[in-house]
Amino acid sequence: MSQNPFALSPDLCYVNHAAVAPWPVRTCEAVSRFAAENAVQGAKHYENWLKTENALRAKLARLVNAASTDDVALLKNTSEGLSIIAYGIRWHRGDKVVVPAQEFPSNRIVWESLARFGVTTELVDLAATADPEQALIDACDRRTRLLSVSTVQYANGFRLHTPLLGDFCRRHEILFCVDAIQSLGALAFDAQQSKADFVVADGHKWMLGPEGLALFYSHPAAREQLHLTQYGWHMLADAGNFDNPDWTVATGARCFECGSPNMLGITALNASLAVIEEQQIEKIEQRVLQLTTYLIDKILQTDQLVLLTDTDPERRSGIVSVKHRRLDNQSLFQILSKNNVVCAVRGGGIRISPHFYNTCAQLDYILDLILH
Predict the structure, then answer these.
(1) Under a CB-based contact definition with an 8 Å cutoff, are residues 145 and 174 in contact?
(2) What is the per-residue pLDDT for 299?
(3) What is the pLDDT of residue 372?
(4) Which has the closest alpha carbon to 84: 266, 196, 216, 201?
(5) How far is the C-alpha of 309 from the C-alpha of 181, rounded, in Å?
(6) What is the residue-wise DSSP string for 228-254?
(7) What is the b/e burial string over 107-144, where b = at least 16 CB atoms within 10 angstroms of the residue's CB?
């Protein structure tokens, strides 16, 4: 990997990228320049802001291998994207959605909220089967309209094989929705290979960007199946012509962007993704998996700890979850926090989520604190 692009305090051990990531120096500088320009000149050079917006769309398109930037929308967060899908589909009473039981609430509640329309949400326990993908497939029947999964489960880092699921969905005309918030920026992802109809992901985790801005990818054929539930000037094909009384909605994914864009967030995320591109996502994935494999191996070497993350190398991601056999999670979390380790309590354990710039020495430091 190239030089560390962060300016984190040297006494801080930051392994909480599955929650909220720190910004790279480049991102901080870009936001500072944007604020300074706005303070002195306002929106005089708005056309340059639009160039940054277009540059961000291009970076996001490359990150998920979208066929076109027209397939990329910039939304507020993952939940907004999921809601656009959930309330854009024309459901019929008796329709079904299939979702892993271990999903983050955002990828469960939105589908369960459709119950008033007669839509059933079936939760599949991934931990109760030796073949999670097959269990999800087996849960799908003639009533299933959509399968929604996370690439990586937020609590324990369990990684699903999305191409297998996407291929099944495509063959059976089931919409396939992928929440990629726990992988984009840390692991390579290909929307075409995964045959994803929709991909949603906030920028504030592994993509190292700000809260309040998210990727929303939609395959053109799937996009046509959604009816719009919100309207505004920015979603129009002729968005800059404010005097035109006649209007037509944009044909691309911008049709889901009803109002003014978050230019400050766009500036920040564009800078963060420039760092991701320079580091190269394939090399980032290699480094992240090297770190989590190192941590998993260390945990398995002591009988004081219980590993909550799957040991199968094919299931690994940037997340490792562990608990102590004697100490409760909150007590352990307090010990780590007091010693400048930034992590989280999730899914019955301590969740550790290092990025490419973290070191094995930092992981050793964390384990020493946990064990002593």
Answers:
(1) yes
(2) 98
(3) 84
(4) 216
(5) 18
(6) P----GGGBTTTT-TT-SS--B-SSGG
(7) bbebbeebeeeebbbbbbebeeeeebbebbbebbeeeb
What is the arrangement of strands in the sheet containing 198-202, beginning at the earlier edge strand?
72-75, 214-218, 198-202, 175-179, 144-150, 96-100, 120-124
Looking at residue 1, its pLDDT comes to 62
Residue ranges of alpha helices (H) inside 113-235 are 132-139, 162-171, 220-223
Q: Are strands 305-307 and 198-202 parallel, antiparallel or unpaired?
A: unpaired
Q: What is the pLDDT of residues 257-283, one digit of tens each?
A: 999 999 999 999 999 999 999 999 999
Using CA atoms, how far residue 266 sits from 53, 249, 272, in Å, is 6, 22, 10
Strand partners, 5: none
Closest to 2 (Cα-Cα) out of 226, 278, 333: 278
Contact assessment for residue 217 and residue 66, using Cβ atoms and an 8 Å cutoff: yes
Q: Are 67 and 223 in contact (CB under 8 A)?
A: no
Q: In sequence order, what are the residues at sequence separation of 6 or more whose Cβ sits closer than 8 angstroms to the Cβ of residue 144?
A: 95, 96, 97, 98, 172, 174
pLDDT at 4: 86
Residues 322 and 341: their CA atoms lie apart, in Å, by 15
Residues of the chain with pLDDT under 70: 1-2
Amino acid letter, residue 173: E
| CA–CA distance, 311 with 359 (Å, rounded to integer) | 21
Distance CA 160, CA 282 (A): 18
Residue pair 106/81 in contact (Cβ under 8 Å)? The answer is: no
Within 13 Å and on the Cβ side, how many CA atoms surround 236? Answer: 17
